[in-house]
Design a protein that fits this description.
The chain is an alpha+beta fold. The chain has five helices and three strands; from the N terminus they run H-H-E-H-E-E-H-H. Helices cover 50% and strands 14% of the residues.
Length: 119
């Protein structure tokens, strides 16, 4: 997995510079699209070497369109990898909320106590 700083650096690169950091593979993409799709290498697989992220695109019949789609998916994957969750701080309930909760529990207890009277 990549570090968030590495992912942010890669996201800031231009398309050409980002493609230069990737291993690009073309393969035959199966599925609908007829003979053109079944006989030509239109599928694109990009592997970003520094982060080891891999994405593929096989939806289109055009290799160029699939390359563009794979690059967009790589940027999305880098964006997700660059996210750093904010630190959570432990907090205590306020005095007012503690009092309200205890009052509610007391009311509930009194209601149940009243049900068992004198059978």
């Amino acid at each position: 997995m990549t570090s968030p700083a590495e992912a942010k650096r890669a996201m800031a690169l231009s398309d050409e510079a980002l493609l230069a950091e990737c291993d690009e593979q073309f393969f035959i993409a199966s599925g609908p699209g007829g003979q053109h799709r079944n006989k030509t290498e239109t599928g694109v697989r990009l592997t970003h070497r520094p982060s080891k992220l891999t994405v593929t695109a096989t939806e289109r019949r055009s290799q160029l369109q699939n390359r563009r789609e794979a690059l967009d998916r790589l940027r999305d994957a880098l964006r997700k990898a660059s996210y750093v969750a904010p630190r959570r701080r432990a907090t205590k309930p306020t005095k007012g909320s503690q009092r309200r909760r205890l009052d509610e529990k007391k009311k509930h207890s009194e209601k149940k106590q009243g049900r068992s009277g004198g059978w």
